[in-house]
């Protein structure tokens, strides 16, 4: 458990960053409910393994986005490298966020979730295309991509 004074967040700081009192109180409650994590205010919503959740600037879905980052923390995600596992991790974090949203009565915006997941899906799709012929490649367990056409499979 991390002492409250070391956890980097105060309502005053949140209000300084432009959050209203309702949001500041929500973050405060989250911090009380998850004493094992540090919450800091930053420029982007982000989970920094192993214990730090960065609260980005105010935006329409701030609450849902912070729950997503708490989801990463709950799932104990470590590596945020962009690979196939990343999409799975993002899905897991959203699953946790959905559960937390019920608990905290935060509206879940499925469009936002799908948009966010799409960035990883698009990226994976992009990555799986053969740079030489454009055909969709497949990945072997070592993480390497192979083109069935160019490599003559
Ligand atoms: Zn994420
Ligand atoms: Zn090819």
Concise summary:
This protein has a domain at about 5-110. It contains five helices and five strands; from the N terminus they run H-H-E-E-E-H-H-H-E-E. A three-stranded mixed β-sheet has the order 1-3-2. The protein has a two-stranded antiparallel sheet with strand order 4-5.
General shape: elongated
Bound small molecules, which ones?
Answer: zinc ion
Q: Helix fraction?
A: 40-55%
User: Which whole number gives the mean pLDDT?
Assistant: 91
- The string of secondary-structure elements, in order, is HHEEEHHHEE
Keywords:
153 residues, mainly alpha, 3-stranded mixed β-sheet, two-stranded antiparallel sheet, 5 strands, elongated, binds zinc ion
Structure, described:
- The protein has five helices and five strands.
- With about 150 residues, the protein is mainly α.
- It has a domain at about 5-110.
- The strands form two sheets. It has a three-stranded mixed beta sheet with strand order 1-3-2. Strands 4-5 form a two-stranded antiparallel sheet.
- It is elongated.
- The site of one zinc ion (ZN) has 4 residues, from α3 and α4.
Topology:
Elements: H1 11-16, H2 21-33, E1 38-41, E2 46-48, E3 52-55, H3 62-74, H4 84-104, H5 110-128, E4 138-139, E5 145-146
Parallel strand pairs: 1-3
Antiparallel strand pairs: 2-3, 4-5
Helix pairs in contact: 3-4, 4-5
The structure holds zinc ion (ZN) (2 copies).
């Amino acid at each position: 458990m991390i002492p409250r004074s070391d956890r980097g967040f105060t309502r005053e700081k949140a209000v300084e960053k432009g959050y209203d009192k309702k949001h500041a109180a929500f973050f405060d409650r989250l911090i009380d409910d998850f004493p094992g994590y540090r919450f800091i205010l930053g420029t982007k919503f982000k989970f920094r393994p192993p214990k730090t959740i960065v609260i980005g600037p105010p935006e329409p879905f701030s609450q849902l986005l912070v729950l997503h980052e708490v989801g990463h923390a709950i799932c104990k995600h470590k590596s945020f490298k962009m690979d196939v596992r990343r999409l799975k991790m993002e899905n897991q974090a959203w699953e946790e966020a959905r559960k937390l949203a019920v608990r905290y009565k935060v509206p879940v915006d499925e469009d936002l979730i799908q948009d966010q997941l799409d960035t990883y899906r698009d990226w994976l799709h992009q990555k799986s295309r053969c740079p030489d012929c454009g055909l969709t490649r497949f990945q072997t367990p070592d993480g390497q991509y192979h083109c069935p056409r160019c490599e003559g499979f």
